[in-house]
Amino acid sequence: MTTADPQLLANIRIVLTRTSHPGNIGAAARAMKTMGLSRLVLVDPAVFPNSQADAMASGAADLLTQARVCATLAEALADSTLALGVSARRRDIVSEVLTPPEASIRLLAEAQTGPVALVFGNETSGLSNEELSLCQGLVTIAANPAYSSLNLAAAVQVLSYEIRQAWLGHASWPQPELDAATGDEMERFYGHLETALAELEFLNPGSPGKLMLKLRRLFARTRLAKEEVNILRGILTAAQEAKQKANGTRNHGAE
Ligand code: SAH
């Protein structure tokens, strides 16, 4: 019998966004290490490095030393093909809601081909709309509906435990069914889409409303392969060129 592959756990990143309390960062590192996870990414932490974080990490201080600190969530997710937001509420932005065991299986299967991420929010405000719009799915820990908000590090512990159980239970995983685009490729696509829609006068840059968030939700639900992103960007470029040509003809005609 083959044993579970440690590389799969190394490809799963725990991303903590805008963490206020350094003690929670340390406790999250400890929660991860007890379950064999090692890659911690901190997005714009309020205080880091910090002695309280070291104290709460205890024997997991090595995860803090190796932690990657990023300015934005987009930067943290640039090379991941799958990012799942962990949130007790907020189902409006991301339509797919997974349980921790379902999320673990998705992450481990996808981790065979590259880095994937679980994204946790700030202690008080949770994940923002913008942060959630960078995730392709949502994971909710079914808790007491009258009091469902776990401590950040406790939430990291629950998810890390579930990932470990799924990892131990499967010696092999089905290959992911598509060669998914990375976070960076998706962000460049959304940038192109927004520019093209503005040029085509479909989107008013002065009042974009919720259009881009809705389009992000649509594509997050479909999940795009690298090749599909290239096709869509080719279509956008063709539309932009057609519009420029039409403008040129009109301007020429007016001369
Ligand atoms: N008041 C915040 C709670 C933040 S708790 C809010 O309502 O969103 C800090 C983080 O822990 C959350 O952003 C989330 O990532 C995680 N968390 C806490 N409880 C959770 C639950 N029941 N399900 C999923 N994630 C949870």
Low-confidence stretches: none
Shape: globular
Question: What structural class do the secondary elements suggest?
Answer: alpha/beta
Following the backbone from N to C, one meets helices and strands in this order, namely: HEHEHHEHEEHEHEHHHH
Count of distinct structural domains? 2
Report on the biggest sheet.
7 strands, parallel
What's the architecture of the largest domain, going by CATH? 3-Layer(aba) Sandwich
Let me know the CATH homologous superfamily of the largest domain: SPOUT methyltransferase, trefoil knot domain
Specify the CATH class of the largest domain: Alpha Beta
Ligand kinds: S-adenosyl-L-homocysteine
What is the β-strand count?
7
The total of helices stands at 11
Which range best describes the helical content: under 10%, 10-25%, 25-40%, 40-55%, 55-70% or over 70%? 40-55%
- In the CATH hierarchy, the third-tier topology of the largest domain is known as Alpha/beta knot
Placed side by side, the strands forming the largest sheet appear as 3-2-1-6-4-7-5
- Rounded to an integer in angstroms, the radius of gyration calculated over CA atoms is 21 Å
Measured distance between first and last alpha carbons? 78 Å
Rounded mean pLDDT score: 92
Explain what you see:
The protein is of the alpha/beta class. The chain folds into two domains: 6-169, Alpha/beta knot (3-Layer(aba) Sandwich); 183-254, Helicase, Ruva Protein, domain 3 (Orthogonal Bundle), CATH 1.10.8.590. 49% of the residues lie in helices and 11% in strands. It is built from eleven helices and seven strands. The chain has helices at residues 6-10, 22-34, 51-57, 61-65, 73-76, 100-110, 129-132, 152-169, 183-199, 211-222, 226-254; strands at 12-17, 39-43, 68-70, 82-86, 97-98, 116-120, 137-139. The chain has a seven-stranded parallel β-sheet with strand order 3-2-1-6-4-7-5. Strand 1, helix 2 (22-34) and strand 2 (39-43) form a beta-alpha-beta unit. The protein is globular, with a radius of gyration of 21 Å. It starts with 5 loop residues before the first helix and ends with a helix. The mean pLDDT is 92. Bound molecules: S-adenosyl-L-homocysteine (SAH).
